[in-house]
Amino acid sequence: MSHVQLEEHIIRLREELDREREERNFFHHEKDKINTFWEITKSQLEDVRSELRTKEREMEEAEERHQLELKVNFDWRIVIPSRSINKK
């Protein structure tokens, strides 16, 4: 290789190196964005799951209260008519 050819080859290699560095930086940046998105999404999922557990507990408590109210109302229907019958 002549001196000129070597210089041209060096120029091409440097250009290729620059392109490779730019590409590496681009993909590194993309990887960071994806990781950040993953962490945010993971945190949001944990929050939603926590909210769901809270709502499920609230629903269970509401159902228990409802069943208790039904029992109390049913018990009062039995007690009240029997008092009325005894008074007559």
From TrEMBL:
<dbReference type="GO" id="GO:0005794">
    <property type="term" value="C:Golgi apparatus"/>
</dbReference>
<dbReference type="GO" id="GO:0005874">
    <property type="term" value="C:microtubule"/>
</dbReference>
<dbReference type="GO" id="GO:0008017">
    <property type="term" value="F:microtubule binding"/>
</dbReference>
<dbReference type="GO" id="GO:0048870">
    <property type="term" value="P:cell motility"/>
</dbReference>
<feature type="coiled-coil region">
    <location>
        <begin position="3"/>
        <end position="72"/>
    </location>
</feature>
<dbReference type="InterPro" id="IPR039308">
    <property type="entry name" value="GAS8"/>
</dbReference>
<keyword id="KW-0175">Coiled coil</keyword>
<protein>
    <submittedName>
        <fullName>Growth arrest-specific 8</fullName>
    </submittedName>
</protein>
<dbReference type="GO" id="GO:0031267">
    <property type="term" value="F:small GTPase binding"/>
</dbReference>
